[in-house]
Amino acid sequence: MTAFAKPRHVIVVGAGIFGVSSALQLARLGVEVTIVNDGAPANGASGRSLSWLNSARRADTAYHRLRIAGIDRYRTLAATRPDCAAWLRFDGGLTWDANDAANEIASVWQLEHSIGYDALLLAPHEVAAVTLGIDATTIPTQGAIFNPGEGWVDLPSLIDLLLTEFRARGGKLIQRAGRAQIRIEGGRAVGVTTTDGGAITADAVLLAVGPATPAVLGEFDVHIPDATPISLLVKTKPVSTPLRAVLNTPRVAVRPTPDGALVLDSAWSEEEVIAYEDGTYAVHGQTVQGLLEEASAVLEGNPRLELEGYGVGPKPIPGDGEPVLGAIAQIAGLHVAFSHSGATLGLIVGELLAREIVSGNSHPMLDSFRADRF
Questions:
Q1: Vertex 249, ends 248 and 253: CA angle to 5°?
Q2: Residue of 196 and 118 predicted with greater confidence
Q3: pLDDT tens for residues 204-233?
Q4: Looking at the domain assignment, is residue 210 inside a domain?
Q5: Integer angstrom CA distances of residue 57 from 3, 195, 263, 270
Q6: Are residues 198 and 211 in the same domain?
Q7: Taking Cα atoms as reference points, which of 227, 260, 287, 40 lies closest to residue 133?
């Protein structure tokens, strides 16, 4: 049996939260690391994420436990870096269901309570006592769940912080490199080739390219089912509101931003985005206006919300909804990070993947999420 050799140089393809977090952890472990990205850092899904830190509505599964560990790492960051306070918040999350036969808020609370996930089931008139800024008249009589331990993060700010340390540790970031082609020799990943023909050699490669992951792996006959939708994240202009929690309601999700604005998304608005074959998108003005109106309706005082801008593009979700993490069995030296919940999992996944890559030993928390389950 061939002894495992610690990699001296690792290439990370992708500069979203998974790529940058993993690259920093690798650098902390003494590995030379190069990040190769097709644009600026956070130019993909990490730059247009609601970034709700949570494990709500989850049973006690491996995915739930990984998300809880993810939240724990953010709490550590918040405790050790008070300068993060503007963009890393733990002010809770509030959620309610539509007032119809599908309303399951009571059973969701029972589930969360049964696994020790901090949750309060509140009548509409009780909400103001635990979190401000909500129009309680929009909450149905079945009530709402408040999860005090949830929060949100501004991923571009986090990525900037991680990259500062990454560079200080000697890490190299290559931006605007176009699409990087993974080089395979003798069944092993040995580096990448950039669109300008430049070849970079490494002992291992981590693929962290979000929604492009299934297509890239498909080139090597590695099949990853894909359920990636097109997401739409709308940002308002700064608005005066006491809202601090993340809201998840039947028609809109809302969270504050570091600059006093709000970001909004919803399932129905995603469905209204038009995707063209050339990879571009169109968003109807009435879709954006509808999101602004839905958000205003759930906020105290129903403030007038004005559009600052929006981001649109693929939101990475594997076909079975579960993360795809770790080594690719068919190709030595190739590793992958592909998942929904990128914000919640960003720090913990980077930590665990880096340790696997450097040690050659699989981490049990990732064993449920290997690509070979497909």
A1: 50
A2: 118
A3: 999 999 999 999 999 999 999 999 999 999
A4: yes
A5: 43, 43, 22, 21
A6: yes
A7: 260
DSSP 319: T
pLDDT in tens, 134-154: 999 999 999 999 999 999 999
- The domain tally of the chain equals 2
Both tokens assigned to 26: 């690798």
Nearest to 179 by CA among 56, 74, 44: 44
Residue-wise pLDDT for 78-125, tens only, equals 999 999 999 999 999 999 999 999 999 999 999 999 999 999 999 999
Domain that residue 286 falls in: 90-150+227-314
Helices 17-28 and 342-359, interaxial angle, to 10°? 40
* CA–CA distance, 42 with 274 (Å, rounded to integer): 23
Q: Which two tokens stand for residue 124?
A: 């509409």
Contact 179, 195 (CB under 8 A): yes
35 lies in the same domain as 167: yes
pTM of the model: 0.96
CATH code of the domain covering residue 102: 3.30.9.10
